[in-house]
Every structure is written in C-alpha cells, then in structure tokens.
Amino acid sequence: MMLATTVRVLEQLRHDHRSVALILVVPALLLAVVYFLFENETLPPGAPRTFDRVGLTMLAIFPFVVMFLVTSVTMLRERTSGTLERLLTTPLHKADLLFGYAAAFSIMAALQSIVATAVAYWIFGLEIQGAAGLVVMIAVLNGVLGVALGLLCSAFARTEFQAVQFMPVVVVPQILLCGLFVAREQMNGFLEAVSDVLPLTFSVDALQEIAANADATTALWQDAGIMAAFVVGVLVLASLTLRRQTS
C-alpha cells in the first residue's frame, strides 16, 4: 500500500509541471544568484571563496525549504479536496500513507539535490575537500527532512495560506541558528542551546566536515545518523497526528 501511494503521488507530480520546476529548477537558479552575489569579491591570494562556504550550505538549505513548502501545500490540498478522507476510509494505514508520500517526495528531493550539486560543482566550480557524493547525501537528507516537517505541519493547517505560515515558525529559525550567519559558539547562550537541538544544525555541521576532510569522518556519519533519526521521528509523529476526517 505504501508503494501504491508512492506511485500515485509521483504520477500526480508528473502532470504538475510547475511543482516539478519548483523542485528541480528553482534551487539551481537560487544557487546561481548566490554565486553572482560573490562573483566580484576581492580576496587575498590563496584565500577560499565565500561562495565555497555559503554555496555549500545553501545546497542543504534550499532542498529543505523547497520540499517543506511543496509537501505541506500538496498534503493540505489532498485533505481539502477530500482525497485524503476517501483514502483513509480504505484499509490503508496512516503510516503507509505518510511514508508513501515521504518516499515519493524523497525521490524528488534526491533528483533536486543531484541537479543543484551538479550545477555547483561543474558550472560554478565549487571547491571543497570532500566528495560530491557526500554533499548529495546530506542535501537529500535535508530534502527528506523538509518533506517530513511539511507532512507534520500540514496536519495543523486548514488552508494553503496557513501551511505557508508555518515557514516563519519551523523553517526560518533553523536557517538563522544553523551557523550560516553567525558561528554557533558566538551566539547568545540561549540561542546556542536551541541551535544544538535543531536538525538543520547537524546538516551544516556535516557539510563543514565534508568541506574540511577529503574522506568521510566519524563526526559526519554521526550528524547524518542524527538527521535520519529526526526524519523517522517526525514521520512517525506526523502519522499519529494525521486526522481521518476533514474538519
């Protein structure tokens, strides 16, 4: 049943060209904007480019934001159209439904991450120590995390506008506190404590490990494992909060 749900969602996405473009094309275009922001910066000889640091982090943030938005709105549309209520009157278990959605959008997140990473490496010349495959892995985990949080938040929204309103609550604080703008050790004590338990923080730490080391480190795998645990935990929580009837 989970596989059938996955196939159904992918089939719907295949006919939704705007959503496919949002998922696959927009992150690469935003990455281009980031690149050209720093294109004319003046650096001392041998100094690393700002794009190599910021662009690498954006490879994790963009999938997270885009997949959260697309998933939450799509799931809410299923509820308001009555599709979700009809599905849940069948023997389909809520966990099958949620994990089927997660699997479908995770496939899209993987494609998105591959496209964005290819653009970063082969068009904009991203230079880091680690392999591109490791970057894709973390980017995919971030996309799947966005999917899981989007599914969870959609249970508490009644309109698409309300679903979008969860972004300042769930997404923006993680971006501000992940260490992109200010090193976490330089933050206020309370904000640093909050940052230490946010899933996006672990993805940024993992990318920093990739940037600094040619081979995968123990810290990298630990961060990836924590992110995966967050994803599973959020999906389980989403299945528990999913209502069988449309309010």
Automatic annotation (TrEMBL):
GO molecular function: ABC-type transporter activity
Residues annotated as domain ABC transmembrane type-2: 18-245
Cell compartments where the protein resides: Cell membrane
Superkingdom per UniProt: Bacteria
GO cellular component terms attached to this protein's record: ATP-binding cassette (ABC) transporter complex
InterPro entries: ABC-2_transporter_component, ABC2_TM, ABC2_TM_bact-type, ABC_2_transport
KW Hydrolase (keyword) present: no
Membrane topology: Multi-pass membrane protein
Gene Ontology BP terms: response to antibiotic
Annotated transmembrane regions: 20-38, 58-76, 97-124, 130-152, 164-183, 224-242
Annotated Pfam families: ABC2_membrane
Alphabetic keyword roster: Antibiotic resistance, Cell membrane, Membrane, Transmembrane, Transmembrane helix, Transport
Subcellular location, principal: membrane
Recorded family membership: Belongs to the ABC-2 integral membrane protein family.
Record-given protein name: Transport permease protein
Species assigned in the record: Arthrobacter pityocampae
Upper lineage: Bacteria, Bacillati, Actinomycetota, Actinomycetes, Micrococcales
